[in-house]
Design brief:
Metal Binding Protein, Guanine Nucleotide Exchange Factor, Chain A; binds zinc ion; three-stranded antiparallel sheet; mainly beta
Length: about 140
């Protein structure tokens, strides 16, 4: 069984993902950048394969009509993005290695900041054309 573990900076939120993650994408949308400080690389797993092993610090923020964001109230780590589908998106910066995945592309490039250039050669999409949540 593939199990990937992750946690916030202080350890008040810890989780396990008991299935392979989807292909990760870097999201450059305004919400991700404001919440995290920059673009967010995230991948998804089925909710049924996601286990919160330490929920103490987890708080949800209703960031838009379609989704909420999970973060740690103790240290501020941006951890989860939930669009209320059967999949949960996790930020890859909070995972322990090995994650088993590699960034596949960039989404919401139309909202990216003016302070950096994306030049890694990976596919770039305006908006949600390459959704974090497949199917
Ligand atoms: Zn924390
Ligand atoms: Zn985003």
């Amino acid at each position: 069984m593939t199990t990937v573990t992750g946690r916030c900076l202080c350890g008040a939120v810890k989780f396990e993902i008991r299935s392979p993650l989807s292909e990760p994408h870097a999201c450059h949308c305004t919400e991700c950048r404001r919440q995290s400080g920059h673009a967010v690389v995230a991948a998804s797993a089925r909710w049924s394969d996601f286990v919160l092993t330490e929920p103490r610090g987890l708080k949800w923020y209703e960031s838009s009509a379609r989704a909420r964001r999970g973060f740690c109230v103790e240290c501020g780590s941006a951890l989860l993005w939930d669009d209320r589908s059967d999949r949960i998106n996790v930020t890859l910066g909070c995972l322990d290695a090995p994650t088993g995945v590699t960034v596949a592309g960039h989404i919401f490039v139309d909202e990216k900041g003016d302070y950096y250039t994306i030049n890694d050669g990976l596919p770039q999409f305006a908006g949600f054309d390459q959704p974090l949540t497949p199917e």
